[in-house]
Design goal:
mainly beta, nine-stranded antiparallel β-sheet, two-stranded antiparallel ribbon, globular, disordered N terminus
């Protein structure tokens, strides 16, 4: 059920390299002089933050607290989601990039952080079968002009040696699973979504012209209707996702438990070029995998 192309994380850099060093470094990797910014330098920094401006695969390991609020009651910490998103990056031209991402998240126990296959819903008293979700593939091209033809600009902020930016969006869309077919899994004809995602990194990393992939952290808040597998129907309420993540460039640095558990449930997730073909999110996946619950 991830919405952001799960990969928001790197922001460190900025110092001035010597002319000799700068001449030996590809333009996309050069440090951005403080106070001098262009759409080209901003998109290069954005890709360094989220991925790798030199190309290759990056990973995001995340840990998410899920709060549920129903019937205007006190929010309840209900479960955790732990997982890893992976992105393949390539250069398509000067200051131009392509990203292809997949995300697999595990519904986990609050206390021990292990994946669970049965969950007692504290809002209904019923046992639910969690859906360990798959999101993506997300594919996009990035360059000095955004998708509306406007110059790409990062709204950067800086304090205490850290640099960050925040993306926000909100809206509604037609629900992928409709209540006439899924009276319990569907929360209504429309779903509403709100997201705020911040990527942060230390200035010292931005200032290092050799770093094409910055060790950024990502802080993401997401509000949505209940996940389909909670079987809440059209009961009033919502869930709040509180996600903390770190971008990782070395596969060996991922949590061994997460790697083993994800590979057990979805063999080839970390090795295949495309671990699945058709676009998926938590709602779409529910409709595909649990047709027996169609009324």
């Amino acid at each position: 059920m991830t919405f952001p192309a799960i990969d928001r994380r790197l922001l460190l850099r900025g110092a001035v390299a010597t002319p000799l060093l700068a001449a030996a470094i590809p333009a996309a990797a050069r440090a951005i002089p403080r106070g001098v910014r262009t759409p080209e330098s901003d998109i290069d920094l954005y890709v360094r933050m989220l991925g790798n401006s030199a190309g290759g695969r990056t990973y995001v390991q995340y840990d998410t607290d899920i709060f549920c609020l129903a019937d205007h009651t006190v929010p309840l910490l209900a479960f955790r989601i732990r997982g890893s998103a992976r992105s393949d990056w390539s250069r398509s031209g000067p200051h131009s990039y392509h990203q292809a991402s997949f995300d697999h998240g595990l519904i986990c126990d609050i206390d021990n952080g292990k994946a669970i296959d049965n969950w007692r819903n504290p809002l209904t008293g019923q046992d639910n079968v969690p859906l360990h979700y798959r999101s993506g593939p997300f594919r996009r091209d990035l360059g000095p002009l955004d998708d509306k033809g406007k110059p790409f600009v990062l709204a950067l902020k800086e304090a205490g040696g850290g640099v960050w930016f925040t993306d926000t969006s909100a809206g509604t869309r037609t629900n992928w699973i409709q209540p006439d077919k899924y009276p319990l899994a569907s929360t209504g004809k429309d779903v509403w979504l709100g997201t705020s995602s911040t990527y942060m990194v230390e200035r010292e990393f931005i200032d290092d012209p050799r770093r094409t992939a910055l060790p950024a952290s990502n802080f993401w808040n997401f509000i949505s209707n209940y996940p389909a597998w909670m079987l809440m129907g059209e009961r009033p309420g919502f869930v709040l996702w509180r996600w903390i993540a770190r971008k990782i460039t070395r596969f060996g640095d991922l949590d061994p438990y997460l790697v083993a558990e994800i590979e057990r449930r979805l063999p080839g997730y970390f090795t295949l070029e495309s671990p699945w073909r058709d676009y998926s999110n938590g709602w779409i996946q529910y409709g595909r995998e649990r047709p027996d619950e169609v009324r």
